[in-house]
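lol ok so funny story. i was supposed to be doing the assay writeup but got distracted and ended up predicting the structure for this chain instead. priorities right. anyway since i did it might as well share w the group, maybe its usefull for someone
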Amino acid sequence: MMEDARFLLEVFGSETRRIGYLRNRLETSFDDMFTADNNVITSTIDLAQGEYIKGEADPTFFDRFAFRYQLNDNTELSAVNPNFTASPCTQDISLTAGEDPATENHIVTIYLFVEADPATGTGILKCRAKRDNLSDADDPVKNPVSGEKELMSNVEALRVLYGEDTDNDHWPNHYLNESQVSDWKNVVSMRLSVVLNSSERGISKADPSYSYDSNTYGVRNGGEFRVYRVFSTTISMRNVML
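and the output, tada:
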């Protein structure tokens, strides 16, 4: 479980550190580059113009969120880049021959979510990604959408709080859930908490509870007597805190 948590937090860190990246902040603003997107990879999250992140809650404690950033050059999603496989979420949206983000505008959107395994009921963390070539938006080959990528199983819950900057000093004034955020353009950090359960059943004397954001919750699938652990991390969005 500890190794799973390390992998999970590494995925969150590597994927989310790109949130809101723009190749040239002096020439381009978020409103210029991030156009409205009402179909974020078949999720129900709608990104308004200028928004680089948005979250959504789920009654089963599987929070989900989408974020986007601009590609920098033709090495980031090149199929021949030896570091390309470092991101499991973007493996299916590589650049085609002749595409160059240094001269064209390419936006990558990543959607992270959890779905329950129909066989066991335990959650599986997944991601999907898409790439929008704003310079050739009508060509589907240059605007690909990935399939689902399974990152981790045995996820009991995924909860996200968003750090909102309300005084324009580029630091969060408070952390809020998705329903409390007043302006997604002011979100500058995230606090992610994931509850993992053991794959083995019957190794605990009783079904435990776990705490998140000063509240205590019971497990979703009682009577399995698994072991549960909460892992949390806070991620600063360095590209939007400039």
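DSSP finds two helices and ten strands in the chain. The CA atoms of residues 211 and 217 lie 6 Å apart.
back to the writeup now i swear
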